[in-house]
User: Fold this.
Amino acid sequence: MRASKYLIATLKETPADAEVVSHQLMLRAGLIRKLASGLYTWLPMGLRVLQKVETIVREEMNRSGAQEVLMPAVQPAELWRESGRWENMGAEMLRMKDRHDREFCFGPTHEEVITDLCRNELRSYKQLPANFYQIQTKFRDERRPRFGVMRAREFLMKDAYSFHVDQASLEETYRVMHDTYCRIFDRLQLEYRPVLADPGAIGGTGSQEFHVLAESGEDAIAFSDSSDYAANVELAEALAPEGERPAPSREMELVDTPKARTIAELVGQFDQPIEKTVKTLVVQASEDVDADLVALLVRGDHELNAIKAEKLAEVAAPLRMAEEAEIRAAIGAGPGSLGPVGLSIPVIADRTVAKMSDFSAGANQDGKHHFGINWGRDAEEPEVADLRNVEDGDPSPDGKGHLQIKRGIEVGHIFQLGKKYSQAMNATVLDEAGKAVTMTMGCYGIGVSRVVAAAIEQNHDDAGIIWPEPIAPYQLALLPINANKSERVRETAEKLYQELSELGIEVLYDDRGERPGVMFANMELIGIPHRLVIGDRGLDKGNLEYKGRRDEKSVDVPVEGVIEFLRDKLGV
Amino acid sequence: MRASKYLIATLKETPADAEVVSHQLMLRAGLIRKLASGLYTWLPMGLRVLQKVETIVREEMNRSGAQEVLMPAVQPAELWRESGRWENMGAEMLRMKDRHDREFCFGPTHEEVITDLCRNELRSYKQLPANFYQIQTKFRDERRPRFGVMRAREFLMKDAYSFHVDQASLEETYRVMHDTYCRIFDRLQLEYRPVLADPGAIGGTGSQEFHVLAESGEDAIAFSDSSDYAANVELAEALAPEGERPAPSREMELVDTPKARTIAELVGQFDQPIEKTVKTLVVQASEDVDADLVALLVRGDHELNAIKAEKLAEVAAPLRMAEEAEIRAAIGAGPGSLGPVGLSIPVIADRTVAKMSDFSAGANQDGKHHFGINWGRDAEEPEVADLRNVEDGDPSPDGKGHLQIKRGIEVGHIFQLGKKYSQAMNATVLDEAGKAVTMTMGCYGIGVSRVVAAAIEQNHDDAGIIWPEPIAPYQLALLPINANKSERVRETAEKLYQELSELGIEVLYDDRGERPGVMFANMELIGIPHRLVIGDRGLDKGNLEYKGRRDEKSVDVPVEGVIEFLRDKLGV
Assistant:
């Protein structure tokens, strides 16, 4: 492509409203432009990247045996009423009425439409399993759209839906999709992890998220340094420390701690290592318990995990922290002075807390703590549960190695949906015995436009984007220096442009007549992986100048060998 | 593709609500399914066709130098208010409000969005001309969606918008787009015509429609049998008959015609050839005329052309036929008895009428006609204009050959928009002198999903669809007979499937175990261009059976030569 015939829409300044680096660079490199809040136009340079991601996703989905379809963006309300989601979806669903006053939405997802299709088209177990996917524009009316295409309102998604005669068949396709997603992200050359995830609002029996690792990621992921184990931090199991609980080595004492209402204050003011302190968090009890409140104990430096706590029979869901007045009424002390000794409400201790000895905690009197508490002696042996978030260095729950925690950007999600939609919408097939059975379903998403932003979050430097080669908008930047003054430079550049293009190499040939500094900066900002500079100084010695986007320095390449050199570098 | 792993969703019965053959066949062949009125899901078989059309369009648009972008489907109302179309578009535009009560529409077209983009991104005449296109989902809330994807509400469109520093540059790109469209429809192997069109509601200075010819087409097209001339029938110029007006050969007489209120009745009851009769149509006059009504005269067998009539200075636009009461008040006779003799309102005669002699027309008295009327003698020489639709056999307006009239389906449209949007939205660039000039624009659409339906309207028979090869969902149907009983058949089929697939041939291999009749009927209905049958009867003689979709009979092909035979047939 000749740059003079192409929209090179680079910006010098970082737009003020772009908070994350991918959003900044996508604007600055001229990949996207904002139309309105959460709505972006893909400019030619950006669309090339998006289409390359799309092609890799499509090829691997086809290879997996999934069948591509294309469903309407606009969906009738009736189907959503059938599944019960018309009311549930809330303001995130963009709703509208047509000229006949019938209700529709701009589909945020397509479970209802595909289930409706399949209940009509699939009749027999012989047609199963079947996996249908589409790559299609979706709309979610985010309360606060941000981060450019990372959390846009209108976005491009690959969504797939599989149909099965039983759970075993679902699990088989689920594994195929897991492997397909790994192939997709491998081909995209992104560092990623499939992580165990909370199935969350869609509901279902098993799910994994695919995260592209990047410091700016919204989600924390825990993964083993010695195995495939990876899970969302909220979901990773925190094991008990190994070994037996150490025996008590000191007597319990009651200490005046008038100015210590937090663990940090306690540790700062007294000679108590934080690993010897315990936090007591009071939450609303469930109706199963003969008490209004329940105390949850975690070590001073650990974080309570709300998802884990909610799952306990004793705890009300959703989790609600007790108000100070409730706590005072039940215990007689404020939230800064609570502890297990003599506590009148049920106590559940985190696994780590249960293995502690000689620890300190509030004394259930304002301004006082107990130091040297020991279970069994000073307080009743507590009920024990996994209550906390895992931390860097924790043992991996699969028993292999230790956990590392990194941040990730969710770009894919695979779900075992089960019969949630097929039951609600009565989607059945006849089984081998001729009996109608409700189909079992899976669903599998990839945020195609979000992948582009995630790739940038993971791959950039101060100069700009560093594209993984398979999704770079162009492979090679061909930059002639002072072509308007040197016929030799111009002729060499034109000839190389022709030859390289004929080899199928995607060349961005900067024939705009810009100064070298502008060309170099533009091409680094855009992130073209390979750069070839043609100048008189080099040509005097028969050389051209090559530099890879991640290289520190350029190297001289003799003119006569440059095609072979580039074929080697680009692998063509 | 193995048919057992693929959604072959053929139907035996023609769905009741499908009026046109393409809609019937798209449902019966399992290409689409209806989700709601005017909303269709593309099934795997249909989507393959749609994507092939899309690919050809994209390749040729890229070759033309146009740059692909992707704009949001959802568009903010403000831009449409700026262009003045938010109010004008009426109920056809699907409107909605987001969670913050801001107004949006599901874009029926993208002039506003692209003009907004280009007024921000294009600064200098040096960046022009520029032509941006997208292939994207649009929505038009048709009052009466019908004919399947032919007139759906949600549809796939290629829309392009070009920007220029002056009209000459626009005209150059317009010509390039004309040629690009011709290449696209050539590659699609469709019989089509670029026709002169009425620019209509979008407004502009020049436009052509691209029509796929098909008997079921909604539009009538007139085109020369000896030149490139083609125009929408409404727009084609009707020339005057050659030669001078014949001299009068009889006296005018007043005849009682009490039962002849129409031309057909007059011709049926009296010895008047229809070519000797004149119809008098009374319409409202424009404000330029010193009368309320104007009489328009066309030959008895000709049709008044409303568009042509409206353009006359004497006639009010839009055209309004006068009520009987108005006519009686002005002329003293009813609409069935009008004519030019002694008429008290202005008369405009069609070119053909002006060349007639000895003709008959109403006498402006109820129940009476004049026969043998001659201009100049019995009635004043009239004002003359082109007032009628052209007819089959008329001379071509370009002077070359004669017109044929066929029906067409509009699948593309190219417009010279001029400055309609750029002026309203203040889209300027600096010209060579550094002066801001309003950009001149063109726009160019192809109804990608409609092309699929049009291709079927043009190419089908009683058995089903006959795809043009470049857009067939699969090139070859591989049909084994009784494979479940014959290992030889099964093995031969499997081996051929492998070999042909490795050659890159798109094979639909019917391994479902259906009876031969079902397989043959399905593949003809789906319209696969080539068919290869493998059966024991043929294999006994070392033969397979080949049949092209348009062939009357199948031919035997020796097993050992079949690959070469097919490569030759398929051109691979």
